[in-house]
Amino acid sequence: MSDHRGAALMLPRLPRAKELLGDKAYDSNRFREALTERGIQPCIPSSKSRKVPLPYDKTLYRQRHRIEMV
């Protein structure tokens, strides 16, 4: 199972968050839409297969090794 499909199954159980940082494996339109429906801003770089790369906060993405819950 791909990473974004497994993550979508867990999405309803995630704590409230403003942003979700993920690597290219989480780049799918369906997963991004599920995040925005919950008020979560995706910070995910586009996969190589995406014809038009989507913007993301590169500075925030560099902090993906940190986990913070507020």
What does this structure look like?
By secondary structure, the chain is an alpha+beta fold. Helices cover 30% and strands 9% of the residues. The protein contains three helices and two strands; from the N terminus they run αβαβα. The protein has a two-stranded parallel sheet. The radius of gyration is 12 Å and the shape is globular. It starts with a helix and ends in a 9-residue tail after the last helix. The model has no long low-confidence stretch (mean pLDDT 87).
Secondary structure layout:
Elements: H1 3-10, E1 19-21, H2 29-37, E2 41-43, H3 58-61
Parallel strand pairs: 1-2
Which terms summarize this structure?
70 residues; alpha+beta; two-stranded parallel sheet; globular
Structure summary:
With 70 residues, the chain is of the alpha+beta class. The chain contains 3 helices and 2 strands. The chain has one domain (3-61).
Compute the number of structural domains. 1
Q: Give the termini separation.
A: 30 Å
3D shape: globular
How helical, in percent, are the residues?
25-40%
Order of helices and strands, N to C? HEHEH
Are there runs of 5+ residues with pLDDT below 50, and where?
A: none
Integer average pLDDT: 87
What structural class should be given to the helix and strand makeup? alpha+beta
* Helical run tally: 3
Radius of gyration: 12 Å
Beta-strand portion reads 5-15%
Would you report the number of β strands? Answer: 2
* Widest sheet, order of strands: 1-2
- Sketch the major β-sheet: 2 strands, parallel
